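pasting for ref
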Amino acid sequence: MENEFRLTYVQEQITQALLQLMEQYPFHEITVTQVVQQAEVGRASFYRSYKSNEDVLRYYMTILIKNWGKKFEAAGNPDWAGSLLRHYYEHKHFYTLLYRSGLSHYMLATIRETVGVDKEESNVAAYGKAWFASGLFGWIEEWIRRDMKETPEELQLLMANGQK
């Protein structure tokens, strides 16, 4: 159970290789061949876990957010917004790469999933959660766009006080 939210060695190699390549090339120009060569793993190893480079990023984000959720629940801290902001700050490099690659919509999808936006809910609940998730994403994306200069604590104060 402890390893439930961990990457295997091969997945870690593939993920790190893709992130390194994203620092050098536009995401949509990176091929699976480049990733496996950089990761020094076989092509079959890639396709055992993933269908595409997008899958690598989505899976990695899922691992990150599930690890955050596990830490958050273990802490028993009701400050979920501060905890989530600290998560994004802790993984600033990764989320900045996503943003700069034009892939921040993956962050929105993850936030919507985390908030629990579900089409099976009543309209009021679903629309409320969607509004909240989109607003939170807007704050985080703008924070990333501005190079995350504020600490999570400073950003949280801005959110609470509505200061400029």
